[in-house]
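Priority: medium. Attachment 1 of 2:
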């Protein structure tokens, strides 16, 4: 079978690529790392995501709490925004009891697992239901990283903005989410 050789198309340089190379070049000449900070992304965070995904606190739940349909597993990943890289792991449950029962369970479970409540907790922002926030430092000297555990309540309306519609589990009770992140959501 004969081999056909197609003529090559002329090389086109996209304006975005040209701008990026100029920014990196200028940043390098000026000894400035600002340009590189803007380019941070989630590359290389897979191991950290797996660590957060396997934290025992995400499987802790009060008696009667169940996983919502489409939320049976831990949702874990990474996102980058304006140079900030955040690794997270979330777990969402439905609970037929009261919010106070959920909060009581996680106060005990988090403390037992080494999480600390902030000494001066901030009130929830307007429009956000009461919840709990804890911090935990992991790693040794020089390599330590703070993790935040946020427990907050969700409504069927909140969940309707996500990829999946809530199932029949929310006919009574409420939903809540536990979110472990590498960001400073608790304010430490």
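Attachment 2 of 2:
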């Amino acid at each position: 079978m004969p081999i056909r050789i197609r003529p090559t198309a002329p090389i086109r340089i996209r304006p975005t690529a040209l701008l990026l190379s100029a920014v990196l070049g200028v940043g390098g000449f000026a000894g400035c790392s600002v340009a590189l900070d803007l380019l941070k992304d989630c590359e290389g965070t897979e191991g950290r995501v797996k660590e957060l995904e396997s934290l025992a606190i995400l499987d802790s739940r009060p008696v009667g709490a169940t996983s919502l349909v489409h939320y049976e597993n831990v949702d874990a990943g990474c996102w980058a925004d304006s140079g900030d890289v955040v690794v997270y792991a979330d777990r969402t449950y439905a609970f037929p009891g009261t919010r106070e029962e959920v909060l009581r369970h996680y106060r005990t479970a988090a403390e037992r697992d080494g999480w600390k409540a902030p000494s001066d907790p901030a009130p929830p922002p307007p429009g956000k239901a009461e919840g709990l926030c804890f911090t935990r430092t992991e790693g040794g000297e020089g390599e330590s990283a703070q993790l935040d555990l946020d427990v907050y309540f969700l409504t069927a309306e909140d969940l309707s903005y996500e990829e999946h519609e809530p199932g029949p589990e929310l006919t009574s009770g409420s939903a809540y989410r536990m979110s472990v992140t590498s960001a400073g959501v608790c304010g430490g």
